[in-house]
Design goal:
14 helices; single chain; mainly alpha
């Protein structure tokens, strides 16, 4: 290939990548919208096979998903609100336990004259909640102090369904437009790579979301049966971060253990916490991941951790969102690169 002849295209590609990197702070709604459109495209395609128009199929998908999300919010949000209130009111007890029990048992007493002021914090929290009248007033107080940031977050949140709708409606046209940009001589190879990447990426994203939801349910129910007051908050939190290997287990069992010790002051309930997370780990490794995600994706746990950290370092929050999908696609490309290398004349010494 003559680089001098093609340097404008190379420079243009580099410029686009640099521009995307500079615009990364505002790309979140577009990336999330594109991800939702990608996930919803197979459903809309099936509706089209039932002689439904593309636009009507998108509307049906949006109505069904919105109804499901609204129902879930009506069921979960009040419970989460109560759990967060319990969490805030428990913070002084957590500090008291840390100061009077945990640190002394570890041989790490606080220096003379230094205290965590658990009683003062308890009074502040109690007075705050009594005066504010609940979580809505507390959120309103945050609005008055961080209006611009909250406005940006709200605008991004409103943009997500709008971007998703239009991308999902025009998804096939966008794919065809990208296909037309590929040189015809490379189209068969690129199409094969794209098809395999699509299969792996779709299986990974949909499977991983189902695994996260299942683990959140298992952890929440197990901790609720164990009598943990913050079962829902801890269970959902552990499920959400479970896309990083063992992170959900470590974070969840640590938080649940501290919550139980502060709540009861006894060691026996820790056994039930361990059983709850043990059941979750067994279910994930023996059933959830093999059946919902599969082994052919080929992402090693260390590669997953590195991808998440690298994405966050390079692009912030948007990098974390893109890290695992990008890693899944890169794994496909690396697998084909390895096969090409093993067949090459350089490898064979010819």
């Amino acid at each position: 290939m003559n680089l001098k002849q093609h340097w404008p295209w190379i420079a243009g590609g580099v410029a686009v990548l640099v521009l995307l990197w500079l615009l990364s702070p505002i790309l979140t709604p577009f990336v999330v919208g594109a991800g939702l459109a990608y996930l919803g495209d197979p459903i809309v395609d099936r509706l089209q096979k039932l002689r439904m128009s593309r636009t009507l199929g998108v509307v049906v998908v949006f109505v069904v998903l919105s109804g499901f999300g609204l129902l879930l919010a009506l069921l979960i949000v009040p419970l989460l609100q109560n759990q967060f209130i319990t969490l805030l009111r428990s913070l002084p007890d957590w500090l008291r336990w840390l100061q009077d029990t945990a640190l002394p048992r570890l041989g790490l007493p606080l220096p003379d004259g230094m205290q965590l002021n658990a009683d003062d914090l308890r009074n502040v929290v109690s007075a705050h909640w009594n005066k504010a009248g609940g979580i809505a007033m507390a959120l309103w107080d945050q609005v008055t102090h961080s209006g611009p940031a909250l406005f940006t977050a709200a605008a991004n949140l409103l943009l997500v369904p709008i971007v998703s709708f239009y991308l999902l409606r025009d998804w096939d046209d966008l794919v065809a437009w990208v296909r037309d940009l590929i040189p015809p001589r490379h189209l068969p190879q690129v199409s094969a790579l794209a098809a395999e990447s699509d299969e792996v990426l779709g299986a990974f994203i949909r499977g991983q979301l189902l695994v996260m939801a299942a683990l959140a349910a298992i952890y929440s129910i197990g901790l609720w049966l164990a009598g943990v007051n913050l079962a829902l908050v801890i269970g959902i939190g552990a499920g959400l971060v479970s896309f990083v290997p063992y992170l959900g287990f470590i974070v969840g069992i640590s938080a649940a253990s501290i919550a139980v010790l502060v709540q009861t002051g006894e060691l026996l309930p820790l056994l039930w916490v361990a059983i709850a997370f043990g059941v979750g780990q067994v279910a994930e490794s023996a059933f959830l991941t093999p059946n919902l995600v599969g082994d052919r994706i080929g992402l090693h746990p260390v590669a997953v951790i590195f991808a998440v950290m690298a994405g966050g370092q390079l692009f912030g929050f948007i990098g974390v969102l893109l890290a695992l999908p990008a890693a899944a696609v890169i794994a496909v490309l690396l697998r084909h690169t390895r096969e090409h290398w093993l067949r090459s004349a350089l490898y064979r010494g010819q």
